C-alpha cells in the first residue's frame, strides 16, 4: 500500500504543489491529472523515490521510502518519459538488460522474446533500437510490464504516448488486469483510454501554489 | 496562479530554531557587525605589533614581517576548508538547508585567504630565496588547495538547481577534505625526493614573544573577518534563495522603509 | 546480488565493443600527446630519458580524463540511469561495474600501450615492468576518482572543463607516486614503496569512491 501525506514539491526555487495526500490500496488505479507544468511528472518521480520531497512523506507498507529504498524498488515498476533504450543495442538486448539491471534475476531470454512478441515487436527483436519508430521504442519499454507482474506497484508516465489505437486498447486491458489481480497503477495521460473500469482521478492542480 | 511560497515553516525549539533560514537571517544581521568591528580592532593591534613593536629579524631583516599576514592567511585557508567539509557533512546527514548555505558562504573567503597566502609567500620568497616560486611542499599543497576551492566554487555556481548545487558541492567538499591530507603527504614525499633539504621553510627556532603575539592577534583578526564576511554572505544567499517567500518580502520592505 | 553488476559490466563492454572507434580515439590521443613532447623540449636523448616517466604519466592521465565525460552521459540522456537508480540492487554495485568496464576499455589499453611508447624515449628496458605496473595500479584510481567528478558534473553546462577542474587536483598524488615509481627504480632506490602506496590508494579509492559516486548520481537525477 502506498501512502502519501502532506507532500510538497519544490522545483528550482518554485514550489509546485503542497499539502498533497493520497492513499493507494491494492487493486486501485489512479490517474494523475492537471494542466501542463502543474507537477505531474514531478509527483510520479516523488512516488518512486527518485527525488526527495521538500516536505511530507511517501511510505510503502507503512515504512517511509528513504528507510526501505531497496525493498520498495523490488515492488516498483517505473516507466518514465525516456524509454531507457540504448541505440546501439537491439530491442531484445535492451529488454534483457533492463530486467537484469532492475534485479529481476529470474527473467530469461525466452521470457523476453515472448514479451516482445506479445507487444507486437516479434519481427524487430534483433533490430538496433536506433532504427525503431517512436511507438516501437515505447513498446520496448512497455514490454517490461509483462515481465513485471511480480511487482505490485506500476508508476507510468504517459504510457499511451505514440501508441496506435490497438496498442492503447491492449495496454488499457493489461493495466486493468493488473489491478484486478491486486496490483496498483499510478499513471498520467493526456488521452482517453478505454479502461474497463474508469480510474480514480487526482487533480494536482488542486494543490498547486 | 498565486505567488509561490514555501510550504513548510518548521519551528523547532531551542538553539535548533536558528537552523531555519528565516530565524538565522536576523541573528546573522545582528552578529556580523560585531565580528567586523572586532576584526578591524584586532587587525589594527596586530599590524601595530607586527610593524612597530616586533624586533627586526637578525637573518631576514624587515622582510620577515610579511608573516603577520602570510601565516594567518595560510592557517585560515586550511581551517576554512575543514569547516566547509564539516557543514557539508552536517547538511548531508541532517538535511538542513542552512548548513549548505554556510558551506557556500565560506568558500570565497577561503579561496581569498589561500590566494593571499600564496601571494604574500611569493613576495617573501623573492628577497629571501631569490625567486618568487619554488616547488616546495607547503607552497605546492597550498596551490592545490586553491584549485580545490576553485573547483567547489565553479561547481556550485554552474548548477542551476539550488538543491542539486548544495548537495553536489557538499560531496566535492567532502571528497576534497579526504584528499587534502593525502595530497599534502604525497607532495611532501615528492618534494624530499626531488629537492632534498636545499630550501627549508622552517622558521627560526626561537621566535620572539612579540612576533608570536602579533601573529596570534592577526590570526584572531582573520577569524573575526572570516566569520563576519561569511555571515553577511549567508544573509545574501538566504535572501536570494527565499526571495519568493512572504517573510523576505516583509524584511525587504522594512529595510527599505528604514532607509 | 551480482546480477546487476554482471549485467551492467557485460552491457558496457558490449557497447564499448560496438563503438570501438571511440576507444581508439582515446588511445590515439595518448600516443599523440606523448609524441608531442620531443618536439617541445628537444630530442636530446638524456633529457628525454629524464622526462619519460612524467610525460607518459601525464599523457595517460589526460587521456583518461578526456574519456570520463562519456562514462554516464549516454545513460543519463536516454533514461537508463533513472532505471538503474530504481534497481532493487544496491547502487554501489552497478556503479562499480560501470567504472570497471570504463577502466577495462579506456585505462587498460593505455597501460598496454605505455611500454611501447616508453621505448621512443629510450627508457631502460628493466624499468618497463615498473612503468606498466604503476599504470596498472594508478589508472583504476583515476577512473574511480574521475567517476565521482563525472557524476557530479552530469548535465551541467560547461561540464567538461568543470570536470577537469574538479578532478585534476585530486589526481596529483596518483601522478606523484606513479611517475615516482619509475623514477625511483631508475634512480636505484627501488619502486616497492611507491607501488605499495599506489596499491593502498587503489584499495582506499575502491572502498570510498563508488559510494560517493552513487550519492552524486542520485543527486544529479533529482
Automatic annotation (TrEMBL), chain A:
Protein known as: Heme ABC transporter ATP-binding protein CcmA
UniProt cross-references to PANTHER family, sorted A to Z: ABC TRANSPORTER I FAMILY MEMBER 1
Gene Ontology biological process: cytochrome complex assembly
Molecular function via GO: ATP binding; ATP hydrolysis activity; transmembrane transporter activity
Top-rank taxon, per record: Bacteria
Species in which this protein is naturally found: Pseudothauera lacus
Keyword annotations from UniProtKB, A to Z: ATP-binding, Cell membrane, Cytochrome c-type biogenesis, Membrane, Nucleotide-binding, Translocase, Transport
InterPro entries: AAA+_ATPase, ABC_transporter-like_ATP-bd, ABC_transporter-like_CS, ABC_transptr_haem_export_CcmA, P-loop_NTPase
Residues annotated as domain ABC transporter: 2-207
Gene3D superfamilies linked to this entry: P-loop containing nucleotide triphosphate hydrolases
UniProtKB/TrEMBL annotation, chain B:
Domain Cytochrome c assembly protein, chain residue ranges per copy: 24-194
Residues that span the membrane, as ranges: 31-53, 73-94, 106-125, 137-156, 168-190, 210-234
Biological process annotations from GO: cytochrome complex assembly
GO terms, molecular function: heme binding; heme transmembrane transporter activity
InterPro entries named in the record: Cyt_c_assembly, Cyt_c_biogenesis_CcmC, Cyt_c_biogenesis_CcsA/CcmC
Membrane topology qualifier: Multi-pass membrane protein
Protein task: Required for the export of heme to the periplasm for the biogenesis of c-type cytochromes.
Similarity-based family: Belongs to the CcmC/CycZ/HelC family.
Record's protein name: Heme exporter protein C
Species classification: Bacteria, Pseudomonadati, Pseudomonadota, Betaproteobacteria, Rhodocyclales
Automatic annotation (TrEMBL), chain C:
Source taxon at top rank: Bacteria
Gene Ontology CC terms, in alphabetical order: plasma membrane
Membrane topology: Multi-pass membrane protein
Localization, UniProt: Cell inner membrane
Keywords: Cell inner membrane, Cell membrane, Cytochrome c-type biogenesis, Membrane, Transmembrane, Transmembrane helix, Transport
InterPro entries linked to this entry: Cyt_c_biogenesis_CcmB, Cyt_c_CcmB_bac
Keyword match Amino-acid biosynthesis: no
GO molecular function, one term: heme transmembrane transporter activity
Entry's transmembrane regions: 21-39, 51-72, 93-121, 127-154, 161-186, 192-217
Biological-process GO terms, alphabetical: cytochrome c biosynthetic process; cytochrome complex assembly
Family: Belongs to the CcmB/CycW/HelB family.
Known function: Required for the export of heme to the periplasm for the biogenesis of c-type cytochromes.
Name of the molecule in the record: Heme exporter protein B
Organism: Pseudothauera lacus
Amino acid at each position: 500500500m502506498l501512502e502519501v501525506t502532506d507532500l510538497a514539491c519544490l522545483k528550482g526555487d518554485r514550489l509546485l504543489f503542497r499539502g498533497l495526500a493520497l492513499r493507494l490500496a491494492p487493486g486501485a488505479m489512479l490517474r494523475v491529472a492537471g494542466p501542463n507544468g502543474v507537477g505531474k511528472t514531478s509527483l510520479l518521480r516523488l512516488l518512486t523515490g527518485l527525488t526527495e520531497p521538500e516536505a511530507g512523506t511517501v511510505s510503502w507498507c507503512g515504512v517511509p521510502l528513504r528507510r526501505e529504498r531497496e525493498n520498495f524498488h523490488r515492488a516498483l515498476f517505473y516507466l518514465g518519459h525516456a524509454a531507457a533504450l540504448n541505440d546501439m543495442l537491439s530491442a531484445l538486448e535492451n529488454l534483457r538488460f533492463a530486467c537484469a539491471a532492475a534485479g529481476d534475476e529470474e527473467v530469461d531470454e525466452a521470457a523476453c522474446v515472448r514479451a516482445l512478441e506479445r507487444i507486437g515487436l516479434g519481427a524487430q527483436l534483433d533490430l538496433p533500437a536506433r532504427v525503431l519508430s517512436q511507438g516501437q521504442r515505447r513498446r520496448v519499454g512497455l514490454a517490461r510490464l509483462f515481465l513485471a507482474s511480480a511487482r505490485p506497484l506500476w508508476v507510468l508516465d504517459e504510457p499511451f504516448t505514440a501508441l496506435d489505437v490497438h496498442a492503447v486498447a491492449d495496454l488499457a486491458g493489461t493495466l486493468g488486469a493488473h489491478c484486478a489481480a491486486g496490483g496498483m497503477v499510478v499513471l498520467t495521460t493526456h488521452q482517453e483510454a478505454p479502461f474497463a473500469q474508469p480510474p480514480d482521478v487526482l487533480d494536482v492542480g488542486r494543490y498547486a501554489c | 496562479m498565486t505567488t509561490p511560497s514555501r510550504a513548510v515553516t518548521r519551528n523547532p525549539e531551542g538553539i535548533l530554531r536558528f537552523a531555519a533560514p528565516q530565524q538565522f537571517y536576523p541573528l546573522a544581521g545582528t552578529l556580523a557587525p560585531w565580528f567586523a568591528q572586532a576584526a578591524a580592532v584586532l587587525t589594527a593591534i596586530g599590524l601595530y605589533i607586527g610593524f612597530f613593536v616586533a624586533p627586526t629579524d637578525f637573518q631576514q631583516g624587515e622582510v620577515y614581517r610579511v608573516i603577520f599576514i602570510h601565516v594567518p592567511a595560510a592557517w585560515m585557508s586550511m581551517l576554512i576548508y575543514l569547516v566547509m567539509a564539516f557543514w557539508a557533512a552536517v547538511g548531508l546527514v541532517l538535511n538542513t538547508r542552512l548548513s549548505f548555505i554556510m558551506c557556500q558562504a565560506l568558500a570565497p573567503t577561503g579561496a581569498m585567504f589561500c590566494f593571499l597566502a600564496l601571494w604574500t609567500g611569493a613576495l617573501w620568497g623573492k628577497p629571501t630565496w631569490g625567486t618568487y616560486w619554488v616547488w616546495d611542499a607547503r607552497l605546492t599543497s597550498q596551490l592545490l588547495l586553491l584549485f580545490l576551492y576553485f573547483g567547489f566554487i565553479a561547481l556550485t555556481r554552474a548548477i542551476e538547481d539550488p538543491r542539486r548545487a548544495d548537495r553536489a558541492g557538499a560531496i566535492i567538499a567532502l571528497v576534497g577534505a579526504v584528499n587534502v591530507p593525502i595530497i599534502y603527504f604525497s607532495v611532501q614525499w615528492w618534494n624530499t625526493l626531488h629537492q632534498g633539504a636545499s630550501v627549508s621553510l622552517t622558521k627560526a627556532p626561537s621566535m620572539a614573544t612579540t612576533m608570536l603575539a602579533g601573529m596570534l592577534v592577526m590570526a584572531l583578526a582573520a577569524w573575526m573577518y572570516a566569520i563576519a564576511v561569511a555571515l553577511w554572505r549567508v544573509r545574501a544567499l538566504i535572501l536570494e534563495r527565499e526571495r519568493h517567500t512572504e517573510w523576505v518580502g516583509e524584511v525587504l520592505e522594512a529595510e527599505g522603509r528604514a532607509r | 546480488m551480482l546480477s546487476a553488476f554482471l549485467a551492467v559490466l557485460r552491457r558496457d563492454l558490449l557497447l564499448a565493443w560496438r563503438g570501438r572507434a571511440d576507444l581508439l580515439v582515446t588511445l590515439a590521443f595518448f600516443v599523440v600527446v606523448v609524441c608531442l613532447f620531443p618536439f617541445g623540449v628537444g630530442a636530446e636523448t638524456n633529457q628525454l630519458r629524464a622526462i619519460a616517466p612524467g610525460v607518459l604519466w601525464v599523457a595517460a592521465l589526460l587521456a583518461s580524463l578526456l574519456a570520463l565525460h562519456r562514462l554516464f552521459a549516454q545513460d543519463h540522456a536516454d533514461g537508463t540511469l533513472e532505471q538503474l537508480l530504481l534497481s532493487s540492487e544496491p547502487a554501489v554495485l552497478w556503479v562499480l561495474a560501470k567504472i570497471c568496464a570504463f577502466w577495462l576499455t579506456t585505462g587498460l589499453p593505455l597501460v598496454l600501450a605505455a611500454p611501447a611508447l616508453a621505448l621512443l624515449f629510450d627508457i631502460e628496458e628493466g624499468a618497463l615492468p615498473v612503468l606498466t605496473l604503476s599504470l596498472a595500479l594508478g589508472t583504476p584510481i583515476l577512473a574511480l576518482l574521475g567517476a565521482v567528478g563525472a557524476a557530479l558534473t552530469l548535465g551541467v553546462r560547461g561540464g567538461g572543463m568543470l570536470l577537469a577542474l574538479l578532478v585534476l587536483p585530486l589526481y596529483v598524488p596518483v601522478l606523484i607516486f606513479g611517475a615516482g615509481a619509475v623514477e625511483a627504480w631508475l634512480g636505484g632506490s627501488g619502486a616497492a614503496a611507491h607501488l605499495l602506496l599506489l596499491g593502498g590508494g587503489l584499495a582506499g579509492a575502491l572502498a570510498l569512491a563508488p559510494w560517493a559516486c552513487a550519492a552524486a548520481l542520485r543527486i544529479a537525477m533529482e
